[in-house]
């Protein structure tokens, strides 16, 4: 089927509607930005960068971010076995759920297990600050 056959088949109004739909599909479908923008919080955790994570949280990046994999920021920090990142996330409102507590137990880090079960992050953050890391 060629252009002339299609043109004669469709009336002028129908043809306009087809073009609008085609342009809309092209504009809003093919050229879409990736669903997940660059997330500084998740990138900080992936790169094991506590300073960057703390700065992102202080700049109001919410602690409830999720990675493209579906893992929460807290779950990623637990998997990184980094008690300081876990403490910062909890300081800014991340509350461990059963899945995250299970991940802490699986990784067998006593400090993180205590942190996610008690919520007491102050001592760990003080330790981090006293070490001159922040």
Automatic annotation (TrEMBL):
SUPFAM superfamilies for this protein: Ankyrin repeat (SSF48403)
Residue ranges of the TM segments: 6-28
Superkingdom per UniProt: Bacteria
Repeat (ANK) residue spans along the chain: 69-101
Annotated signal sequence range: none
UniProt keywords, alphabetically: ANK repeat, Membrane, Transmembrane, Transmembrane helix
The protein's name in its UniProt record: Ankyrin repeat domain-containing protein
Lineage: Bacteria, Bacillati, Bacillota, Bacilli, Bacillales
